[in-house]
Task: inverse folding
């Protein structure tokens, strides 16, 4: 396929890139406390990009397809494209990254089922009426990229995800607790953290409390940090910087967030579910400090963004059916110097575990607006009960100027993050 | 396809089905004036699902030559698992059927040269960008997909169904350097490219609105009487009640069965809600579901009384109800689960003007950026909103999110207007990792006495 591709593209005086993926999937599923079954599958497909006179064409095929047809189809749409300045990868130096574990590939179904049984029982020992869902999925991904510029590499990766959900219902009082962990190495799972979360949440939501509308300090647990960070991930994406939508456009080296806030994108993280040796267009992976002590240092970039903004790329991600775009890998927020217990000992605060609806709000405007799906009212270190029917609303570029970060951090899936204390957040309620 | 049919005739299983999906799609995306991507792609894949001794086996694949082995594998899988499954399952009966359905195409997007499509969308982008300096960017997304679904099962059902899906949106972004605001011109259809045409006027209006929103205030957070328009009303009923009606949520949960029992008073008397596959041209239009079951319209709420659930054959069996044709899978990688099709609130007797007059201090929310629910709580985000003071619409508000308790809110509906409409969007519904499934929703203007509005304090 490789030689054929190179000659097909070169014979038309163009350059090109062939992206191939094979995925083997298995998931063991428990629903409503019971083992439900196993889903398995295999998918293979490839995508082609061709470039001539600065114009780019893209086409893909999943399942039965001829390489010639897909290459032709990519050439067919090339004429519509904007002008691109970058070249396909010719990189030679690719770092080593630990993101494949034969243990995950070999793991038996029975092991997953045993863990499922154990976790279902554990959650029900905390609250018998809870309906528990469990899923353990593993994907074995083989990715290879060939370019007419001489890049020809592949890597194999495992991604295992354990997810646990608990659901309790009574009229006008539904409680849903959810936690997951994704890793590429089997020995990095921390089941105790999952259990601990369920224990804390079940205990804390024994009773509901109402809060009045007003300004509150809000503490985002590491499980809620992905909601809080949504606007930042939009703003830090180089594509949005170029389009002008990013509020961080033109702010490189400026102080944009709290002086104690540091955010690192790290695809080299050993065992990370989002780790890779090279990105989805063959750019070598590198750790990127995006924000350091509040100062904006970098944007996420693919080869296109990299060529336009003059910054390092290496953040391209895609599926078979889509063109590469800049996206984050594993994200690390550096811990601070306050202990969680000190953080919770404030006069009054809302502790947020998850928000609902944030992604639909004005995230490019910097807003985190959402219903408190799971959160608690805390007074001087004591959890008083679950907060419901409350909406929080904050603009991260105003409100993340003076935050506190906990010493402790938790590796959820994408984020490794401390607890984040935001002193002044608008909360709307009845 | 005769081969597939022959392969499903197995005696050593309770049930076996094969689903194969073959199709082609194209997409155009613009960022500002630049054509970002024009792509074409083809896909082919399938799956086998078997039921052996009350236990499911499911396998998907992209290499169709392996189908016989995959069938054996899925059966083996289910047999192996049988000893671990305590909760055996079954399927509600449906009569075997044989049918071939052609897509109902009015204006086929695949007949239109890519040149013309790109030209039109570029014109749209230019229009938005040149309408005002403060429109700093516009995003255009367009996608069309044509697929044929082949379904055969061991009961002798064979359904071959063509499905066309068209969707997209134009999003103007306005910014004054400090604030950014977006609006959206969505479109979607299952039969005609016409929905993507002649959007110039609306794009200009929405660009103007995005700029106006820069100067608007956020509402003061709190509880208000709220009027929602047809788009938001549709999203509201989809989120707030549609998902609750999906029987996989209910069928193994005794407490939910009680809450969602047919005959329960669930909403105010004026509330009528339907889910149907039978509205032609809508993205939620569907004649047969992914279990080969002919779709039926379901009255979910009739005069405030809960009247139906949305089923797969399995959930119908477990709840001793009839299958409704709501078993849907986004693609061959997934087994079907209960999903909505076109969900809507029926028109009533009220009028928008009378609702406004009735409100001393409240909010009128229009247009949708989407919604989310966990069963009890829901959130949705409006595109634009207005303050209502003493029976009059006064000022424009930005970034309005609405939230509440599903059950209380359904009972707090105090007005249903007579101006029902359904507008398709280019997005879709997400559930259990299956996103974006084409669905439609609509409503008339709805007046709700209490809704929590997020905002400044």
Result:
């Amino acid at each position: 396929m490789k030689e054929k591709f190179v000659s097909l593209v070169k014979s038309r005086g163009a350059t090109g890139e062939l992206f191939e993926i094979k995925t083997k999937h298995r998931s063991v599923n428990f629903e409503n406390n019971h083992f439900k079954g196993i889903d398995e599958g295999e998918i293979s497909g490839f995508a082609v990009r061709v470039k001539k006179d600065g114009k780019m064409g893209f086409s893909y095929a999943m399942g039965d397809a001829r390489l010639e047809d897909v290459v032709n189809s990519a050439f067919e749409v090339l004429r519509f494209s904007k002008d691109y300045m970058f070249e396909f990868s010719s990189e030679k130096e690719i770092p080593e990254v630990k993101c494949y574990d034969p243990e995950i590939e070999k793991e038996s179904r029975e092991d997953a089922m045993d863990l499922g049984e154990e976790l279902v029982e554990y959650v029900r020992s905390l609250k018998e009426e809870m309906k528990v869902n469990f899923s353990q999925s593993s994907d074995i991904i083989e990715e290879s990229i060939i370019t007419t510029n001489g890049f020809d590499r592949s890597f194999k990766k495992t991604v295992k995800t354990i997810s646990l959900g608990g659901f309790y219902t009574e009229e006008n009082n539904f409680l849903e607790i959810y936690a997951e962990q994704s890793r590429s190495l089997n020995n990095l799972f921390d089941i105790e953290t999952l259990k601990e979360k369920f224990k804390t949440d079940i205990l804390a939501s024994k009773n509901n409390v109402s809060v009045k509308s007003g300004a509150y300090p809000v503490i985002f647990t590491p499980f809620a940090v992905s909601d809080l960070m949504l606007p930042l991930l939009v703003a830090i994406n180089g594509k949005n910087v170029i389009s002008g939508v990013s509020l961080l456009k033109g702010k490189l080296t400026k102080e944009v967030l709290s002086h104690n806030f540091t955010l690192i994108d790290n695809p080299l993280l050993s065992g990370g579910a989002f780790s890779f040796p090279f990105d989805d267009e063959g750019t070598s992976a590198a750790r990127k400090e995006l924000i350091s002590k509040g100062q904006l240092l970098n944007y996420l970039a693919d080869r296109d963004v990299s060529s336009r903004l003059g910054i390092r790329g290496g953040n391209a991600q895609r599926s078979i059916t889509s063109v590469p775009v800049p996206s984050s890998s594993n994200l690390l927020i550096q811990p601070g110097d306050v202990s969680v217990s000190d953080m919770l000992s404030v006069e009054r605060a809302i502790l947020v575990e998850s928000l609902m609806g944030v992604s639909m709000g004005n995230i490019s405007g910097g807003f985190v607006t959402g219903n408190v799906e799971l959160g608690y009212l805390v007074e001087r270190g004591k959890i008083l009960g679950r907060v419901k029917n409350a909406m929080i609303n904050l603009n991260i570029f105003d409100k993340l100027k003076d935050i506190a970060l906990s010493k402790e951090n938790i590796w959820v899936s994408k984020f490794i993050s401390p607890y984040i204390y935001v002193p002044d957040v608008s909360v709307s309620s009845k | 396809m005769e081969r597939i049919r022959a392969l499903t005739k197995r005696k050593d299983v309770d049930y076996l089905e094969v689903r194969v999906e073959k199709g082609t799609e194209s997409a155009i995306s613009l960022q500002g004036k630049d054509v970002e991507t024009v792509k074409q792609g083809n896909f082919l894949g399938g799956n086998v699902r078997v039921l052996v001794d009350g236990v499911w086996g499911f396998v998907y694949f992209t290499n169709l030559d392996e189908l016989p082995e995959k069938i054996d594998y899925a059966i083996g899988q289910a047999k192996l698992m049988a000893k671990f499954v305590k909760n055996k399952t079954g399927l509600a009966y449906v009569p075997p059927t044989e049918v071939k359905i052609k897509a109902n195409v009015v204006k086929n997007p695949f007949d239109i040269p890519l040149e013309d499509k790109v030209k039109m969308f570029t014109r749209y982008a230019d229009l938005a960008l040149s309408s005002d300096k403060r429109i700093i960017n516009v995003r255009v997304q367009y996608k069309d997909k044509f697929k044929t679904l082949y379904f055969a099962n061991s009961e002798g059902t064979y359904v071959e169904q063509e499905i066309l899906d068209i969707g997209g949106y134009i999003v103007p972004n306005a910014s004054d350097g400090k604030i950014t605001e977006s609006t959206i011109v969505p479109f979607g259809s299952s039969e005609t490219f016409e929905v993507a045409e002649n959007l110039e006027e609306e794009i200009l209006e929405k660009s103007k609105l995005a700029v106006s929103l820069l100067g608007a205030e956020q509402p003061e957070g709190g509880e208000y009487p709220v009027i929602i328009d047809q788009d938001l009303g549709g999203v509201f009923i989809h989120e707030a009640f549609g998902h609750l009606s999906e029987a996989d949520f209910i069928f193994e949960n005794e407490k939910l069965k009680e809450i969602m029992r047919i005959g329960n008073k669930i909403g105010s008397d004026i509330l009528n809600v339907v889910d149907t596959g039978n509205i032609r041209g809508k993205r939620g239009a569907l004649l047969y579901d992914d279990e080969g079951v002919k779709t039926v319209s379901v009255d979910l709420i009739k005069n405030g009384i809960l009247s139906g659930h949305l089923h797969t054959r399995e959930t119908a069996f477990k709840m001793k109800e009839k299958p409704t044709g709501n078993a849907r899978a986004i693609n061959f990688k997934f087994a079907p689960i209960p999903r909505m099709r076109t969900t809507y609130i029926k028109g009533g007797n009220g009028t928008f003007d009378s609702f406004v007059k009735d409100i001393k201090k409240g909010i009128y929310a229009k247009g949708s950026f989407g919604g989310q629910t966990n069963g009890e709580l829901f959130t949705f985000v409006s595109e634009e909103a207005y303050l209502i003071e003493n029976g009059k619409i006064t000022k424009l508000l930005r970034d309005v999110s609405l939230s509440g308790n599903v059950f209380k809110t359904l009972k707090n509906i105090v007005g249903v207007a007579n101006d029902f409409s359904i507008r398709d969007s280019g997005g879709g519904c997400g559930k259990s990792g299956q996103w974006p499934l084409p669905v439609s929703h609509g409503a008339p203007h709805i007046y709700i006495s209490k809704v929590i509005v997020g905002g400044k304090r």
Notes: The longest helix of chain A spans residues 109-126. The first strand of chain A starts at residue 15 and ends at 31. Residues 2-190 of chain A form a domain with the PmbA/TldD fold fold (CATH 3.30.2290.10).
